[in-house]
C-alpha cells in the first residue's frame, strides 16, 4: 500500500508538531501556510526533511491528500477547505490526529472562559503524583508531546475550533467550564451552533467516561436535558447541593463526592480570588479526586497555585495604584469576572476586535466600579456609544503606551488600572499575549 499523504494547513505550533509526529508514523507530509511560517518553525521543518511552503497554497499539492490536518484558525468557510471537503478528503484537528498514537488517560477541558486556568490548575495538582503533560491550546503541541514525551496522562485545553474537527477523539474525563456567546462569527452568528461545538467533547464518551460541568450554567444544563450524553455526569455548583460532583457548603468548603467517597476542601486559602476561580478549583479538584490524588496534595496545590499569565495578573503597584493585566479576557464574559472581582474604583482599558459583543451584562459593574474608560482598538464606536453616558471620562487611543500613560494620570491612590479588553487582539497586536506583554512593559516604564 502506498504511503498515506497528510497535508497540514498552517505552519504554527500545532501544524509543525503534527508534521513531526506524522513523519515518524510513516506519512508523506506536506505543510502549507497562506501566511509566513515563523523562522523557528521553518528550521524544524527543514531539519526534519519535511516539505513545506508559505505565503501560498498550491492546490495540486494539497488536493491529492488522503487526510488534511487544518490549523484551528482556518474557518470551514475558506474556499480551499470547501474544495478539500468536496473531494471527500478527511479533515481532522491536531488533537484528533495525535490522540490515536497514545494510550494515555486524556483529560479534555473546554469552555468559553476558565479553560486555561482550569487546565493549568489541574496539571499543577496532578503533576505532584502522576506523569502528566499539559497541551492543546497551551504550550508545546499535543502531537509533539505524544512523539517526544509519551506521558501517561494529558491535560488538554481544547477550543471549540479544535473540537469541530474531531471524529473519534474521546477524553476519559471531559470538563466544560461554562458556555457564553463567543466566536459567533465562526458559527453563522448562531449561539446554538457554538454550544453544540463545545459538547462535541463528550460525543464519543461512554458511561465509563466522565463529564464534569458547571451546574449553575443554564446553557449547559438546558442542552444536557435536550441532548443527553452517555458519560457519567459530575456537576459542580456554588448554589446547589450536589450528590455526585462538587458543591460549596454553608461553611464555604468545597465538598466533592464520587462513588460515595467524599473530600472536603476549605476555600479560604485558595490562592486565586473570585467566585469564578472557586468554580475552576472545583473542576480541577474533581479531576484530581477521580484520578485518586490525595486530598492533602489537592489542598496544598490549590493554596500555592499562582495563576495564569495575562489572566487577572497583578503587575505592579505604583503610587498605591494596582495595575492588573487581564489581556486574556477576549470576550465579555471574561471581563464580567474581572470587573466583578474589582474591590476599588477602576480605570478600565477595553477594546479590540469586537466579535458582535453585547456589553449589557457589564453595565452594573461599570456603573458601580468604573471611574474612567480607555478604549484601545482600531474601531471604538460601539464602546464609545455604549459606555459614553456611564462614566465621566471616556477616551480612545490606538497605542498601549499611551493608554497606560492616560490611565496613570486618571488613577488616584487606592484605585485599580485594569486591562480587560473583552475583545480579540488582532487589530493592534499579534495576539493577547503580545497585548498583555506590551501592557506590562508600558507599566514598568512609567
Automatic annotation (TrEMBL):
Residues 310-423 form the Mur ligase C-terminal domain. It is found in: Cytoplasm. It comes from the Bacteria. Its main location: cytoplasm. InterPro entries: Mur-like_cat_sf, Mur_ligase_C, Mur_ligase_C_dom_sf, Mur_ligase_cen, MurD. It is an enzyme of class 6 (ligase). Keywords: ATP-binding, Cell cycle, Cell division, Cell shape, Cell wall biogenesis/degradation, Cytoplasm, Ligase, Nucleotide-binding, Peptidoglycan synthesis. The keyword Magnesium does not apply. ATP binds at residues 111-117. One of its GO terms (biological process) is regulation of cell shape. One of its GO terms (cellular component) is cytoplasm. It catalyses: UDP-N-acetyl-alpha-D-muramoyl-L-alanine + D-glutamate + ATP = UDP-N-acetyl-alpha-D-muramoyl-L-alanyl-D-glutamate + ADP + phosphate + H(+). Residues 109-288 form the Mur ligase central domain. Its EC number is 6.3.2.9. One of its GO terms (molecular function) is UDP-N-acetylmuramoylalanine-D-glutamate ligase activity. Pathway: Cell wall biogenesis; peptidoglycan biosynthesis. Belongs to the MurCDEF family. Cell wall formation. Catalyzes the addition of glutamate to the nucleotide precursor UDP-N-acetylmuramoyl-L-alanine (UMA). This is UDP-N-acetylmuramoylalanine--D-glutamate ligase. The gene is murD.
Amino acid at each position: 500500500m502506498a504511503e498515506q499523504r497528510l497535508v497540514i494547513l498552517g505552519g504554527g505550533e500545532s501544524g509543525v508538531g503534527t508534521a513531526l509526529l506524522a513523519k515518524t508514523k510513516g506519512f508523506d507530509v506536506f505543510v502549507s501556510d497562506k501566511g509566513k511560517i515563523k523562522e523557528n518553525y521553518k528550521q524544524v521543518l527543514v531539519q526534519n526533511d519535511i516539505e513545506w511552503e508559505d505565503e501560498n497554497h498550491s492546490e495540486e499539492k494539497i488536493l491529492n491528500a488522503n487526510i488534511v490536518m487544518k490549523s484551528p484558525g482556518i474557518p470551514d468557510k475558506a474556499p480551499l477547505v470547501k474544495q478539500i471537503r468536496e473531494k471527500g478528503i478527511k479533515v481532522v484537528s491536531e488533537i484528533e490526529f495525535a490522540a490515536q498514537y497514545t494510550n494515555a488517560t486524556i483529560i479534555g477541558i473546554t469552555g468559553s472562559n476558565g479553560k486555561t486556568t482550569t487546565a493549568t490548575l489541574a496539571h499543577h495538582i496532578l503533576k505532584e503524583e502522576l506523569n502528566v503533560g499539559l497541551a492543546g491550546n497551551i504550550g508545546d503541541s499535543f502531537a509533539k508531546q505524544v512523539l517526544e514525551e509519551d506521558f501517561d496522562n494529558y491535560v488538554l485545553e481544547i477550543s471549540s475550533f479544535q473540537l469541530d474537527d474531531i471524529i473519534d477523539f474521546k477524553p476519559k474525563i471531559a470538563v466544560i467550564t461554562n458556555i457564553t456567546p463567543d466566536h459567533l462569527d465562526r458559527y453563522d452568528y448562531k449561539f446554538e451552533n457554538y454550544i453544540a461545538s463545545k459538547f462535541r467533547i463528550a460525543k464519543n464518551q461512554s458511561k465509563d467516561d466522565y463529564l464534569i460541568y458547571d451546574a449553575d450554567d443554564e446553557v449547559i444544563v438546558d442542552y444536557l436535558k435536550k441532548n443527553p450524553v452517555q458519560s457519567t455526569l459530575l456537576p459542580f455548583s456554588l448554589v446547589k447541593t450536589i450528590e455526585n460532583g462538587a458543591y460549596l457548603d454553608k461553611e464555604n468548603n468545597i465538598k466533592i463526592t464520587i462513588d460515595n467517597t467524599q473530600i472536603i476542601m476549605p476555600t479560604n486559602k485558595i490562592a486565586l480570588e473570585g467566585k469564578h476561580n472557586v468554580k475552576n478549583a472545583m473542576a480541577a479538584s474533581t479531576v484530581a479526586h477521580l484520578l485518586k490524588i490525595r486530598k492533602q496534595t489537592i489542598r496544598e496545590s490549590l493554596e500555592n497555585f499562582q495563576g495564569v499569565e495575562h489572566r487577572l495578573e497583578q503587575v505592579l503597584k505604583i503610587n498605591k495604584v494596582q495595575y492588573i493585566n487581564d489581556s486574556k479576557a477576549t470576550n465579555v464574559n471574561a471581563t464580567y469576572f474581572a470587573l466583578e472581582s474589582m474591590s476599588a474604583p477602576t480605570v478600565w482599558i477595553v477594546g479590540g476586535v469586537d466579535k458582535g459583543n453585547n456589553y449589557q451584562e457589564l453595565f452594573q459593574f461599570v456603573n458601580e466600579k468604573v471611574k474612567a474608560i480607555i478604549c484601545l482598538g482600531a474601531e471604538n464606536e460601539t464602546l464609545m456609544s455604549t459606555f459614553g453616558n456611564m462614566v465621566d471620562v471616556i477616551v480612545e487611543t490606538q497605542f498601549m503606551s499611551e493608554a497606560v500613560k492616560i490611565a496613570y494620570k486618571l488613577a488616584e491612590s487606592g484605585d485599580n488600572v485594569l486591562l480587560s479588553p473583552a475583545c480579540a487582539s488582532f487589530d493592534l497586536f499579534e495576539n493577547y499575549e503580545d497585548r498583555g506583554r506590551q501592557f506590562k512593559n508600558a507599566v514598568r516604564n512609567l
